[in-house]
Amino acid sequence: MTSRTPSALPGRPCSIAAALQVVGEKWALLAVRELFYGNHRFDRIARNTGAPRDRLTARLRALEEAGVVERRAYSERPPRYEYHLTEAGRDLAPLTQALLGWGDRWLAPEPPVIFEHAPEGREPHPYDPAWVCRTCGEEGRRGELEMEIHSPGWTVEGPVEP
Question: For residue 100, what is the domain's CATH number?
Answer without folding.
Answer: 1.10.10.10
